[in-house]
Automatic annotation (TrEMBL):
PROSITE patterns: GNAT
Protein name: Putative N-acetyltransferase HLS1-like
UniProt xrefs under Pfam families: Acetyltransf_1 (PF00583)
MF-aspect GO terms: acyltransferase activity, transferring groups other than amino-acyl groups
Keyword vocabulary terms for this entry: Acyltransferase, Transferase
Species classification: Eukaryota, Viridiplantae, Streptophyta, Embryophyta, Tracheophyta
Length: 408
């Protein structure tokens, strides 16, 4: 056996690490020969997927005297809802008035973008990166850490569950729909109103703040330049954009049914590309687009141009109420599709709890979607008070989940 090679884990330096990081990313994304694979272009900014979070860090692993970069990891920290409790006022309520629970927040860290060069795997580099990132999480007061990966990525799941002490936690679904060559028809029985960031914040805080993973800094999300707007759908004749009274009055006497979602512009952060398609598949895909564009009234499903870089819009904050909420969600998704088409995107995507009742209104293609995205979680310290929620890692899943677009 030769001398042990020194692995150094340190903070990413954009001035000297950019080429090395891009090389590792490129080597990690080599798909199986002859099979379709998805490539991500981070547009020259390796920190783009965490940059908009309240606190973030990127680490690299370098090896040997040449200081070759052989791995990297990103992490971010935020405060989210982990449960709910009755407020102090509710506990002392003697008038039997209806009371609403309030959110219980926790500081949570998120790991993403863990990469190790294929020629340097099984050397403990991934574990070193995770452990160093967790040190930073603890130093900054995070109580929990979680990560997300494809359900069939057994190597990643084993690293986190077998070696790092994480446990399988939630399995939301990623639903992806292509952007067709024609505009989607939105039902004329539905009125779509664009909310101001202030009205959107009021609506989300009043109705969704007790949803799992709801970010306490929702105002930062809604006011971010990547957020393209929040849209409310109501039955036609209920409100118009001009007559909408604002979220406070709307929630005091809401419509019989309503739905809401917000749109995040991932196209400005990264692009995607499908590689490995045969010439026949490319020609078939192009044919569907030509026919769809020429004969839009046939509503033929066209395959978007996925074989060169394309952008996506992410739909977040999806929710609603009432007997027609599913139909209103479908109308909002159609509206979002047309917004994505106008901005030149290839797909729209969202991520929802596998138990989410409104998912029935979300159009998607099964072949593009992921039925189970695996989220694993770990409690970083035992010196925290269990408080109102107890150990969140042991809690049962709820019907809804809030997926932060800053981390998609």
């Amino acid at each position: 056996m030769g001398p042990e090679v020194m692995i150094v884990v340190r903070e990413f330096d954009p001035n000297k690490d950019l080429l090395g990081v891009e090389d590792v990313e490129r080597r990690c994304e080599v798909g199986p020969s002859g099979e379709l694979s998805l490539f991500t272009d981070l547009l020259g900014d390796p920190i783009c997927r965490v940059r908009n979070s309240p606190a973030f860090l990127m680490l690299v692993a370098e090896m040997g005297e040449e200081k070759e970069i052989v791995g990297m990891i990103r992490g971010c920290i935020k405060t989210v809802t982990c449960g709910k409790k009755l407020s102090r006022a509710a506990k002392t309520n003697t008038n039997n008035e209806p009371t609403k629970p309030v959110p219980v927040y926790t500081k949570i860290a998120y790991i993403l973008g863990l990469r190790v060069s294929p020629s340097h795997r099984r050397m403990g580099i991934g574990l070193k990166l995770v452990l160093r990132m967790e040190e930073w999480f603890r130093e900054n007061g995070a109580e929990y850490s979680y990560m997300a990966t494809e359900n069939d990525n057994q190597a990643s799941i084993k690293l986190f569950t077998n070696k790092c002490g994480y446990s399988k936690f939630r399995t939301p679904a990623i639903l992806v729909n292509p952007v067709f060559a024609h505009r989607v028809r939105v039902s004329n029985r539905v009125t779509v109103i664009e909310l101001s960031p202030t009205d959107a914040e009021v609506l989300y805080r009043r109705r969704f703040s007790t949803t799992e993973f709801f970010p306490r800094d929702i105002d930062s999300v809604l006011n971010n330049k990547l957020s393209l707007g929040t849209f409310l759908a109501v039955p036609r004749g209920t409100y118009t954009a001009e007559s909408f009274p604002g979220s406070d009055k709307f929630l005091a006497g809401p419509a019989d049914s309503w739905a809401v979602l917000s749109v995040w512009n991932c196209k400005e952060v990264f692009t995607l590309e499908v590689r490995g398609a045969s010439r026949v598949k490319r020609i078939l895909a192009k044919t569907t687009r030509i026919v769809d564009r020429a004969l839009p009234w046939l509503q033929l499903p066209s395959v978007p141009e996925l074989f060169r870089p394309f952008g996506l819009h992410f739909l977040y904050g999806l929710g609603g109420d009432g007997p027609h909420a599913v139909k209103l969600v479908k109308a909002l998704c159609g509206y979002a599709h047309n917004l994505a088409k106008a901005r030149g995107c290839g797909v729209v995507a969202t991520e929802v709890s596998s138990r989410e009742p409104l998912r029935l209104g979300i159009p998607h293609w099964k072949k593009l979607s992921c039925a189970e995205d695996m989220w694993c979680i770990k409690r970083l310290g035992e010196d925290y008070s269990d408080g109102s929620v107890g150990d969140w890692t042991k809690s049962a899943p709820s019907s809804s989940i809030f997926v932060d677009p800053r981390e998609f």
